[in-house]
Amino acid sequence: MKPQLPDGLVAIVKRECATCVMVDPLFANIAASGTPLTVYTQDDPTFPASVSAIHDADLSVSWHYDIETVPTLLRIENGEEADRTFGWSKEAWQKFTGITDLGADLPVMRPGCGSLSVDPNLEDELRVRFTSSTLHSRHVELASAEDEFESMFTRGWTDGLPVIPPTPERVLRMLTGTTRSPQDIVAIAPPNLVELTIEKIAINAVMAGALPEYLPWIITALEAVCNDEFNMHGVLATTMPVGPVIICNGPGTKAIGMNSGVNVFGQGNRANLTIGRAVQLTIRNVGGGKPGEVDRATHGNPGKLSFCFAEDEAGSPFGTLAQERGIAPQQNAVTVFAGEGPRCVVDQAARTPEQLTNSFAACLRATHHPKSVLSFDAILVVSPDHSRVYAEAGWDREKILSELYARLNIPGTELVKGAHDMAEGLPAKFADRTVPKFKAGGILLAHAGGGAGLFSSIIGGWANGAMGSTPVTRPVIS
Amino acid sequence: MSAPILLDPTNESRPAQREQLTRPASVKGLTVGLLDIVKARGDVYLNRLEELFVAEGAKVLRFRKPTFTKPAPPDLRHEISIQCNVVIEALAD
């Protein structure tokens, strides 16, 4: 609970600070002026020498009044803080105290020192001391001889890889990444339809290895998958090898160090990997979605551990996926897509946009099955080397997509059951029709990858539309 | 070394324990709900079951989920629960 301070002036000091020592004699002047003065000392209860002080031994006053610098002078009126000044400024202290010659012989200005309440070595401990009551999760106490990493495997909390132990210190530090209350309910998590709180997300984010600054992205991605439109329940339960593919846009992707370049889908980047992993761990641990239980995937894919990347916006000649989906420029956003693992499109010879588009269309045609039409969407992730071909020819997103769709209208004779001696296919009545491979909007175009390599990638989707999953894009709010 | 404390990452809920109903000795006179989850050929399986149940003297009611990719809507589940004595859900292809 926030301690009540007496009306008048309140000073917070520590002996370790040279500026505090310098202003020590002034406290006697202030007290003598008749203004009520209360001094809190953070370290030495005998300091300052000029007046008696209250020892803020547990740093409760310093923490609750957000003291970052000592000395700090507060003016308290009717129990509330009315004003503050910190460090030493002759002018400010004279004005604050109403003593016009206060510290006349001292320098004009001296910066203060860091408050003990923001000491990096103490901050986690203090956060637990003063804010752990905001956490509601059950405490799991391990035996002192128990290996905490092994015990988390035993409890079924992991995705098969080790996780970081979610101690109260780490979870509270994670929660500094958001302004939302720990008990805010973000979504209803499938498959067990559980109310998903910020606190539970933060616990799983810690376990995934995420940093606090990733938390808003993780929360947004979970909001984006836990709804009827994306249908995380179905994505989880399906026998197909899909999971949530998370595409991040906006300047925040750079701020948190996401990778949009070399090895963009691969290992090596903490933000990419732990944001995706935190989403999956949350669905597993809070929603209850575990492989072999509700998750019935025949093969799954390695991306179900984490499949998250940033779009290379600066290098894109055709804008960004987020903007295409209605997000304002410079707005951070997350797009989720129910997708399988990426497959490579190799074309090292195309020098015209038509040639390249022919290759893309031929490869997109094979998504899931060459005869499968209209049922699945796909993301085409174009690499910088390939997008250069489009940039030089002046093709924008609209042009690229319209040329792709035009090449993906397939004669029914190739699609009907029995054609090419494959039992799979459409009923015979489609033989005299032309059927598009993708529904309108079924190809999502993104730009990412390393600067060398005439390769692009296709990420095939899952049952699309109201019968399955629709991609969802949401702005990221801190 | 003090014992580490971890915060529970799960939903901390326990599934409700429900007793299974006793298996009916006969389906004669019972109402049997057949829920088609609309996967391919589920109807073939259910059609055959309907024939068999009718021959055994049961009344058969047919239900369909809107899509197999999502859980059955609550209204549909309620409808089945008030109209049927037993239910069979046809799973897949």
Automatic annotation (TrEMBL), chain B:
Residues 6-93 form the UGSC-like domain. It comes from freshwater metagenome. Residues 1-22 are annotated as: Disordered. This is Unannotated protein. InterPro entries: UGSC-like_dom. It holds the Pfam family UGSC.
